[in-house]
Amino acid sequence: MFPWIELVRSQMQESFERNRFHHAQLIHGLVGVGKTALVQSLSEDLLCMNSGLNSCGQCKSCLLLRAQNHPDLLHLASESGSIGVDEVRTLNEFVFHSAQQGGNKVVIIEQIEKMTESAANALLKTLEEPAAKRYILMTCNDISKVKATVLSRCNQVRVAVTDGTVAKQWLAMKGISSDAHLWADSFANQPLLLEQWSNQGIMPEVDYLWKVAHDITSISDISALESSLAKGTSLHTVFARFLISAVKQELVADQINFVQYHNCTQQIKKYMSDHHKILGINKLLSLSNLVFGLQRVLKQD
Ligand SMILES: [Zn+2]
């Protein structure tokens, strides 16, 4: 397990040993802190036939899990779109039937904030009246988007990188350091995101976006920028984040005034919200509007 998760993990183990482990666990935190890895390892521990919250890796249950073929594990994930009421009905049905291996049954729901309102309502009863030996492990990137009625029925566990040094050391072992990537430290609280970019081979793109964001007034080739952004699903968010930090730097260095700063951040936020809201948006046009809009403001005296 990742070093920054060890403490949370051992606290959960302790609550399990004291019979205080809640049947509905909501693990929340930023993208790239290891929430999925944590719920996966908890599900292994809960399904293991040997006692305690520590999977043995050798019993029949552990072997079934390794073969990704465990009948008492249900995994609901929403890569895109939402988690609907049909999926929650499947869940309720799954929880109702007895365990095929005679032990615990576990449901993993990833990104619970993507659950529709009616799906969340369908889940409430199961959360409220837990059957014995049933566990629901949920992850969430943004807890503010989860319904209060769901939240109040879960044990909330926050996962975060609390010691940046530990994460930086871990990243350095993967060959990712701020020496090579000037922006890397600002993502030290999302180490798995950096690892993912590194595995996908898009670190040069992120380097390029960082450079462009800090030299936005001299950019004219919008197509090159757009094709760079298109290489990763969340790169436009990263680019917006770099832009915000670049204009903040300009403000602090007295290169721009507060009105210019405010105008820039508004434009960047609009670009972001358009991306999320407008289906089939003309990305090149929206990017041109942003870049030339920022240039107009930044070049004012
Ligand atoms: Zn086992």
Structure characteristics:
alpha/beta; Rossmann fold; single chain
Could you characterize what this model shows?
With 301 residues, the protein is α/β, with parallel strands linked by helices. The protein has two domains: 3-158, 3-Layer(aba) Sandwich (Rossmann fold); 201-298. Helices cover 51% and strands 8% of the residues. It contains 13 helices and five strands. It has helices at 6-17, 35-47, 60-66, 85-96, 117-128, 148-151, 164-173, 191-200, 203-213, 222-229, 235-252, 258-277, 283-298; strands at 24-28, 73-76, 105-109, 134-140, 155-158. Strands 2-3-4-1-5 form a five-stranded parallel beta sheet, with helices on both faces. Bound molecules: zinc ion. Residues 48-50, 55-56, 58-59, 61-62 line the site of zinc ion.
Topology diagram in text:
Elements: H1 6-17, E1 24-28, H2 35-47, H3 60-66, E2 73-76, H4 85-96, E3 105-109, H5 117-128, E4 134-140, H6 148-151, E5 155-158, H7 164-173, H8 191-200, H9 203-213, H10 222-229, H11 235-252, H12 258-277, H13 283-298
Parallel strand pairs: 1-4, 1-5, 2-3, 3-4
Helix pairs in contact: 4-5, 9-11, 11-12, 12-13
Bound molecules: zinc ion.
